[in-house]
Write a structure and sequence with these properties.
Number of helices: 3
Distance between the termini: 82 Å
Oligomer: single chain
Order of helices and strands: HEEEEEHH
Low-confidence stretches: none
Number of strands: 5
Mean pLDDT: 79
Shape: elongated
Strand content: 15-25%
Length: 127
């Protein structure tokens, strides 16, 4: 009985590994099949870009305004939600509200005191 368990256990483990690998491959293939222009993506190299065109085997990605590169579909690691892509590209959390125009006009103060003077009592000219 113990010998049978020792024999069956590795076979079951190998079966589960192949099954999970096949499931991941199917998810990757379905994600690549649903790529559409305008979607934000992350490549396997960690680069974020926007899909400009989808061809049979390749994808055209805009990595900067006016800069379009060609990648194989296999290089796409993930398709991002529009809010997530915007948050990553613009450097703000997805749940954060955009800065309003009246707040944007206020000067940025790095002082710790509320009067705008440096916290150590020195003026910027003497430093």
């Amino acid at each position: 009985m113990a010998n049978l368990i020792i024999l069956i256990l590795p076979i079951v483990a190998i079966f589960l590994m192949f099954r999970s690998q096949k499931k991941r491959q199917q998810q990757q293939a379905s994600m690549q099949a649903t790529l559409q222009p305008g979607a934000g993506v992350r490549t396997i190299g960690g680069m974020y870009a926007q899909v400009k065109a989808v061809n049979d085997e390749t994808v055209e990605l805009e990595i900067a305004p006016g800069v379009v590169t060609h990648y194989t579909k296999g290089a796409i690691a993930a398709v991002l939600e529009p809010l997530e892509y915007d948050a990553i590209i613009n450097g703000r959390p997805a749940d954060e509200e955009p800065i309003e125009a009246e707040d944007a006009d206020k000067p940025l103060s790095l002082a710790k005191d509320s009067d705008g003077a440096p916290a150590d009592g020195e003026t910027p000219e003497t430093k």
